[in-house]
Automatic annotation (TrEMBL):
<dbReference type="InterPro" id="IPR051210">
    <property type="entry name" value="Ub_ligase/GEF_domain"/>
</dbReference>
<dbReference type="InterPro" id="IPR000210">
    <property type="entry name" value="BTB/POZ_dom"/>
</dbReference>
<dbReference type="InterPro" id="IPR009091">
    <property type="entry name" value="RCC1/BLIP-II"/>
</dbReference>
<dbReference type="Pfam" id="PF00651">
    <property type="entry name" value="BTB"/>
</dbReference>
<feature type="domain" description="BTB">
    <location>
        <begin position="460"/>
        <end position="524"/>
    </location>
</feature>
<dbReference type="InterPro" id="IPR011333">
    <property type="entry name" value="SKP1/BTB/POZ_sf"/>
</dbReference>
<dbReference type="InterPro" id="IPR000408">
    <property type="entry name" value="Reg_chr_condens"/>
</dbReference>
<keyword id="KW-0677">Repeat</keyword>
<protein>
    <submittedName>
        <fullName>RCC1 and BTB domain-containing protein 1</fullName>
    </submittedName>
</protein>
<feature type="repeat" description="RCC1">
    <location>
        <begin position="301"/>
        <end position="352"/>
    </location>
</feature>
<feature type="region of interest" description="Disordered">
    <location>
        <begin position="591"/>
        <end position="619"/>
    </location>
</feature>
Length: 619
């Protein structure tokens, strides 16, 4: 996209060319169609966030405004959003009534009129003391606590006065008191089990009814909470959760975690809070949300959807009995490269250059294939059913649901420009070259064409200094595939060398192979661990997810102690949590095997005794 063309959106008329070139991420929202009004939030290269347009969702700011004909205040110019500036915000998503932002260090922020309604409030957070031996009851001061095992947790309970010591966020525990944080039952919110994804009931634990999954025998720990305010504020998430991506629909928010989970908050057929049911345990490559549904592209190019399918937007026959939060596979005639969700429809770009389109009608299994051209990109105006697509010959078309009749957009150079005046998201880092890299056919050796330039001086325009020598690199490859280099090259493109001698050269070359999509031999667990640590330090989230999942596959009794030690020393909380969970599973397996062996021995002893008795009687 020609950046200066962003000024064609009326809400950005006031920005100079220099200001437009300074934008690295932009969302325009607030109207369901072309309008002289609307709201924009954008992130600049130095990390500041600005709002312009109708002054809503981000709190009230003292700046000159004008009253517009439909009511409300329209900002004259741009206003810095101080709460979101200087925190390295990397992504903004916006629904009809709330917004969310994700920072480079994976902190989540919420704002807007309805943002407090999509999460359980802090008044529903209850903390229970973990069982601590030889501790006298604080209430009666006569007996020591005994362990009360409920839903997989050992909690302090006084056997004399039948009391559980509890705390709230208003009256918290001391740092020296170990606690577990749970959610008090609220009949207006459905909590989905963190283990099986099914609806939770509740169980009484002392003075509170807590969310509880009966099939899993699991109390539900708190996912997070935030203060009630229309202005931006940080969400207090459970420390074990690492959010790597975020998206939202009309009235719900979805988080993707580093452990391959999707967590939903808000209204998606019901008021939900909890884990999307990933029945097939697919690896999530990326996901997006529509008005009342979401779609997932897996690492193998399969498409899965869930949510409200009453308009056919899920791609399969759906009814309410199937629920709203279980991912199901969509049958398509090819692998999915990219998916866009509209208000009540879905478009998928397939690897052969065709587009599959469904939704916006009552024909729940009707999938229309667009094969008139070879398409290389698609887009959708946010929370609308207006789509656009670009062809290999640079033609740009648009269509509206429910009838995918293509209309040529003569003056548009890409999919975003075809949606002029409508709500859109613009990410400067997402170039067409990145997209072509995903769709270009592999060569006969089975790897990306970028791999041909790995370690080659041909077309090299950047040198990386490694401990074992110089590495000839290519800016366009690193810019499109590395979060670290994208930021570095965005801030300055004048340097010819960058010093990476502080890193292990073998590990760094493995990281570069990932960026170049080169063939990588099966890595040992030690190499995977080193690559994971390096990726975390460099904020390379895709590599983090890639190595994290493969490390978990390689966890065994031979290496778990060393991996746990490294995770603890490097403060890698997500990996450490998985190590502890794996250790618990190993211990439980050992106990089960021991118990089984004891039962087997007892059975054999009984059989021998019976045989001896029969022998004596027969004698």
């Amino acid at each position: 996209m020609i950046v200066e063309n962003l000024r064609l959106w009326p809400v950005l008329h006031h920005l100079s060319k220099e200001s437009l070139l300074d934008i690295v991420y932009l969302v325009i929202y607030g109207d369901k169609g072309p309008s002289d009004y609307g709201t924009a939030l954008y992130i600049t290269r130095n990390g500041d966030v600005f709002a312009c347009g109708i002054n809503s969702y981000c709190g009230k700011y003292s700046m000159q405004t004008e009253i517009i004909k439909h009511g409300g205040n329209f900002l004259e110019g741009s206003m810095m959003v101080k709460e979101l500036s200087g925190i390295e915000l990397k992504k903004i998503v916006q629904s009809s009534e709330f917004g969310a932002g994700l920072s480079a260090n994976n902190n989540l922020y919420l704002w807007g009129n309805a943002s407090s309604s999509i999460m359980l409030g802090k008044e529903y957070i209850v903390m229970y003391e973990c069982y601590t031996p030889d501790t006298v009851c604080k209430k009666c001061s006569t007996s020591e606590y005994s362990p009360s095992t409920i839903g997989g947790f050992d909690l302090n309970k006084c056997t004399t006065c039948d009391w559980y010591p509890t705390y709230s966020l208003q009256s918290p525990n001391s740092p020296q008191t170990p606690v577990k944080t749970f959610m008090e039952f609220c009949d207006m919110v459905v909590v989905l089990c963190s283990k099986c994804g099914q609806w939770c009931s509740f169980v009484a634990v002392g003075a509170f009814d807590l969310y509880y999954c009966t099939p899993c025998n699991a109390l539900q720990e708190s996912i997070g909470w935030c203060e009630e305010s229309t202005a931006p504020r940080k969400v207090q998430l459970d420390h074990s959760l690492k959010v790597v991506d975020v998206a939202c629909g009309m009235g719900f928010l979805v988080l993707q975690t580093a452990s391959n989970n999707l967590i939903v908050f808000g209204y998606l057929g019901c008021n939900f809070q909890g884990y999307i049911d990933n029945l097939d345990n697919v690896v999530i490559q990326n996901f997006t949300c529509g008005g009342h549904h979401l779609a997932v592209v897996t690492n193998k190019g399969a498409l899965y959807t869930c949510g409200d399918g009453s308009s056919g937007q899920l791609g399969y026959d759906w009814n309410e009995d199937m629920g709203y939060t279980t991912l199901r596979k969509v049958s398509l005639p090819g692998t999915t490269v990219k998916v866009c969700c509209g208000l009540s429809s879905t478009a998928c770009l397939l690897s052969d250059g065709s587009v599959a389109f469904f939704g916006g009608n009552n024909a729940k299994q009707s999938i229309t294939m667009l094969k008139q051209y070879t398409f290389i990109d698609i887009a959708c105006a946010t929370l609308t059913d207006l789509f656009s697509a670009k062809t290999a010959s640079s033609g740009v078309y648009f269509w509206r649901s429910p009838t995918p009749k293509l209309h040529l957009k003569v003056d548009a150079c890409d999919c975003i420009e075809a949606l002029l005046g409508w709500p859109v998201t613009y990410d400067r880092a997402l170039s067409e070259i990145l997209f072509l890299k995903q769709t270009l056919p592999c060569n006969k050796h089975g790897f990306s064409h970028y791999a041909e330039f790995y370690g080659q001086k041909q077309f090299s325009d950047l040198t990386l200094k490694l401990k074992d020598g110089d590495f000839p690199a290519h800016r366009i490859v690193l810019f499109n595939n590395s979060a670290y280099y994208k930021k570095l090259l965005t801030e300055s493109a004048d340097f010819q060398f960058t010093d990476m001698t502080s890193h292990d050269p073998h590990t760094y070359r493995n990281l570069l192979k990932y960026f170049y999509q080169a063939l990588v031999k099966e890595l040992s667990w030690q190499d995977l661990l080193n690559l994971y640590v390096l990726a975390v330090n460099c904020n390379e989230n895709e590599v983090v997810e890639y190595t994290f999942r493969r490390l978990l596959d390689k966890l065994d009794k031979e290496n778990i102690d060393e991996i746990t030690r490294v995770a603890k020393s490097k403060e890698l909380s997500a990996l450490l949590a998985e190590c502890h969970a794996q250790l618990e599973r190993m211990l439980q397996l050992t106990k089960n095997e021991t118990s089984s062996n004891q039962e087997s021995d007892a059975t054999k002893t009984n059989q021998n005794d019976t045989e001896s008795t029969l022998h004596i009687r027969s004698s």
